[in-house]
């Protein structure tokens, strides 16, 4: 007995990523890496705020 049937497998994210072209995957990967990098860098970014 399969875990998911054939109809559900056609709509899964893995199949979707496989069916998209390479250029879209490059854009997706670059965006994902940029967001992860920005979120990781947030604790190290600080600024001094002064009121005169």
Give an account of the 3D structure.
The chain has helices at 6-10, 13-19, 22-41. The longest helix has 20 residues, at 22-41. The mean pLDDT is 79. It has one domain (6-42). The chain is mostly helical and 52 residues long. It is built from three helices and no strands.
SSE-based structural type: mainly alpha
Q: Gyration radius, to the nearest Å?
A: 20 Å
* Count of helix runs: 3
The rounded distance between the terminal residues' Cα atoms is: 72 Å
Roughly what is the average pLDDT, rounded to an integer?
A: 79
As residue ranges, the low-confidence spans are none
Structural domain tally:
1
Short description:
The chain has about 50 residues and is mainly α.
């Amino acid at each position: 007995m399969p875990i998911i049937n054939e109809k559900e497998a056609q709509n899964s994210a893995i199949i979707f990523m496989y069916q998209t072209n390479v250029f879209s995957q490059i854009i997706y990967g670059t965006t994902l890496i940029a967001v992860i990098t920005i979120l990781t860098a947030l604790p190290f970014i600080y600024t001094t705020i002064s009121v005169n």
